[in-house]
């Protein structure tokens, strides 16, 4: 267990050195197809380490709980810090944890361990409990790798639309203008208020034109996005100085092509958790 904590601590120190020397992790550099190549290389490395585990002590150690528990402790601490601090795309260090080298290295290390555990458990799928555990760990591995590498391909932009003015430009998180593959025109801004005048509901009736020649008339409501050609369109804001008479509406457009794979991993973990409970109950009944 001491070795596990030393390795994790060493990764955090190495991450701090990288943060001070080269700056934050630049996820844009891992955009497709680079992230696909990195994922393939990562899986190949895990397979090679698994095959060499009997000859190399370090590889054998990584698939044990002595390695897994310490890195989970580090990951939990860093995740708690992330939850307790304000996160910003323009932040640095703990204020932008997804680009903070110690955070990234710890999660990559944990994904490596989970991958080795998956291959190790694949050799012992002789009982229902082993199969269920393998399903859970495989789901965890898929979720961690696709969520991390998919971050490079995720796009989040804001579009300011005005009544009667088709708009195809948006601002990314760095404030740069980006031409979108769809055009949106605001037809009507809707606001419902409480008795004291505070907003109860606000939404936008919009027309969407796409490069694939789709012509969509729809309403975007808060927490009820519209999905078109891989983009989710959210109601984000409006001209607060005009209130219900606002002639503009701010929409947020999000594209995350790796999200289905993240959901696949989550569903596998949920299935594994449910099956663990079911098989556990059955074993207890059999003992009784």
Task: Give a structural overview.
The protein is α+β, with helices and mostly antiparallel strands. The protein is 48% helix and 24% strand. The chain has seven helices and eight strands. The longest helix is centred in the last third of the chain and has 29 residues, at 259-287. The radius of gyration is 24 Å and the shape is elongated.
Major beta sheet summary: 4 strands, antiparallel
| Assembly of the depicted chains | single chain
**What is the strand content?**
15-25%
pLDDT < 50 stretches: none
What is the approximate shape?
Answer: elongated
Question: What would the average pLDDT be, to the nearest integer?
Answer: 91
Order the strands across the largest sheet as they lie in space.
Answer: 1-8-7-6
What count of helical segments does DSSP give?
7
Helix/strand-derived class?
alpha+beta
Rg over C-alpha atoms, rounded to the nearest angstrom: 24 Å
Order of helical and strand elements: HHHHHHEEEEEEEEH
How many extended strands? 8
In which range does the helix fraction lie?
40-55%
State the end-to-end CA separation: 36 Å
């Amino acid at each position: 267990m001491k070795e596990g904590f030393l390795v994790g601590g060493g990764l955090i120190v190495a991450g701090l050195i990288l943060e001070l020397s080269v700056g934050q992790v630049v996820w844009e550099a891992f955009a497709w197809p680079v992230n696909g190549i990195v994922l393939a290389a990562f899986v190949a490395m895990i397979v090679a380490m698994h095959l060499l585990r009997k000859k190399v002590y370090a590889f054998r150690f990584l698939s044990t709980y002595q390695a897994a528990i310490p890195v989970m402790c580090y990951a939990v601490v860093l995740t708690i810090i992330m939850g307790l601090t304000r996160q910003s795309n323009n932040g640095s260090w703990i204020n932008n944890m997804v680009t903070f080298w110690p955070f990234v290295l710890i999660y990559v290390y944990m994904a490596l361990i989970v991958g080795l555990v998956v291959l190790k458990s694949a050799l012992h799928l002789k009982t229902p409990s082993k199969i269920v555990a393998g399903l859970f760990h495989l789901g965890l591995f898929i979720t961690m790798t696709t969520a991390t590498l998919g971050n490079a391909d995720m796009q989040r932009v804001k579009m300011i639309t005005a009544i009667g003015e088709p708009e195809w430009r948006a601002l990314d998180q760095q404030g740069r203008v980006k031409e979108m593959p769809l055009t949106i025109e605001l037809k009507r801004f809707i606001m419902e208020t409480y008795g004291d005048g505070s907003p109860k509901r606000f939404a936008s009736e919009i027309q969407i034109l796409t490069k694939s020649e789709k012509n969509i008339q729809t309403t975007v409501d808060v927490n009820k996005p519209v999905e078109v050609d891989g983009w989710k369109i959210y109601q984000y804001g409006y001209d607060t100085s005009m209130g219900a008479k606002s002639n503009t509406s701010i929409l947020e457009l999000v594209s995350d092509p790796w999200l289905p794979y993240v959901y696949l991993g989550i569903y596998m973990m949920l299935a594994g958790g449910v099956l663990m409970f079911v098989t556990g109950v059955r074993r207890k009944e059999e003992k009784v």
